[in-house]
Amino acid sequence: MDSQKGDVEREAKNGLSGRNDNLCSSAGGLRRGVGTDNHKKSDKQKEELDEAIEISFAEPLRKSDAYKWQSGDDNDLAKSHQNDFHPSNPPYVPKGNRVCGGCNRDINYGNYLGCMGKYFHPECFRCHACSYPITEKEFSLSGKDTYHKTCFKELTHPKCEVCFQYIPLNGDGLIEYRLHPFWSQKYCPAHELDNTARCCSCERLEPMNVRYILLEDGRSLCLECLESAIMDTGECQPLYHSIRDYYEGMNMRIDQQIPMLLVERQALNDATTRDKNGFHRLPETRGICLYEEQTVASILRRPSVSGHRLVGMRTQYQKLTRRCEVTAILVLYGLPRLLTGAILAHHLMNAWLRLKGYRNLNPEVEAGICQVLSYMWLESEIMPNIPSSSSSSTTTSKKGGKSRNENKLGEFFMHQIAHDASPAYGGGFRAANAAVNTYGLRRTLDHIRLTGNFPL
Ligand SMILES: [Zn+2]
Ligand SMILES: [Zn+2]
Ligand SMILES: [Zn+2]
Ligand SMILES: [Zn+2]
Q1: Which domains does the chain have, with CATH numbers?
Q2: Which residues surround ligand 4, an ion (CB under 5 A)?
């Protein structure tokens, strides 16, 4: 879980910087919101609004100065000018020559108001968001657009996607929130400390109107990840075989029958601790390629959903004997199909290297090239237009039926591989990927065999 912290970026918005210039420069005229669909803002409008939010916080009181009810009597208008120091008030115009900035008709009698160098009928001074007249003393201004303060806040103040409240200001008066770099999930920093569940697969926090599933080992799984989650050893075999086929299609056939088991978190951690040769990925190991004989509890029967928990799993101890250089591949249960596959593709590459006599590779080289295979397999799964190089693929029944959600998850796992901060997995992947893009996989592997390093 902790590894996710590094991936979550901080973003702070300055809510208090003075932007008086913008306020004054808006004196050129007022554009009215038309139609009723103004809540659907385009991206550009959103950007403008993002900027404008700062004005809204900075100058609510001064803005109200620009907005004064005035009677049709010229003397009152003159008086109000003396009292009003805001530069955007309209110049004095003789009665009868005032044109409403909203409807463009003359203002002949009754109340009117002056704002930003223009006059308005009261009913023509409207909110750019909801199109209703603004009658409050204070309002918000974005560029030349006027808004109800509440409408403006609704449009611009970021809301937390976990608790659905406006993100609170921090001690310095700034709007500070966390933003997931891939999903763009925006949330109050407090949820990192208040035991809000985080999906162990996609990293998204549990919104308050949704219940994640709790796995028996304490991990949480969101419902999207649960949809394609692989829960027991038997269920995982077709995927395992399709990835072996994928290797074969790349002319990297693995002849040995290497057992593959789905296991619980504890079993995986125990096996990892016992296996001195495996690379250990901190803080959470999700798979391992075993080189030594061990007895491991394999998940025999999948747990079922009961309430918001997964229960009733059955495991069976299995003695793994060594029939070749590689004893077994173990993968954590309960992960979505694409993540399970990515882990399998990685550890099959460990196995392949071992079986082909690659020895004593440094962690960056081994983890890096294994992550490249993982990445390539994901790519082949989520980009169906890339022609499969596999000649005898028979286990593609689950392929092709992927939902948009599942594809998006696949993109996320690729993003995670590419942006991993660890030296071995992240740095190794980036170096290996650069080499493979330049020289191709085969030549890169040959170079690694000869030199123990990536070609530069
Ligand atoms: Zn008007
Ligand atoms: Zn409004
Ligand atoms: Zn929140
Ligand atoms: Zn998830």
Answers
A1: 11-156 (2.10.110.10), 226-451 (no CATH)
A2: 199, 201-202, 222, 225
